[in-house]
Amino acid sequence: MTTSITSSKFRSEMSRYIDVAQREPVSILSRGTRPRAVLVSQEFYEAAIEALEDRDDIAAAAKAREETVTISHEELKAELGIDQ
């Protein structure tokens, strides 16, 4: 669930909504209807950033696997001049 408030209400009750954000996101609205920002806890923010970094790492690893040339065990032995 997300709490939605106007920016003026946020300014007047900032401490209260920082406390609320420890439990759930707080959507700050501009002109009463348009989302302007979302306030979240530090813990939520860090977890979200870590998840995004993990997603990027997974995508980079998948791309690297696609670009990697593979050779068979037999081809490697022949390339290295190993008979056994």
TrEMBL record:
Alphabetized InterPro entries for the sequence: Antitoxin_Phd/YefM (IPR006442), YefM-like_sf (IPR036165)
A Pfam family: PhdYeFM_antitox
Domain of life: Bacteria
Coiled coil start-end: none
Homology family: Belongs to the phD/YefM antitoxin family.
Functional description taken from the UniProt entry: Antitoxin component of a type II toxin-antitoxin (TA) system.
Protein name: Antitoxin
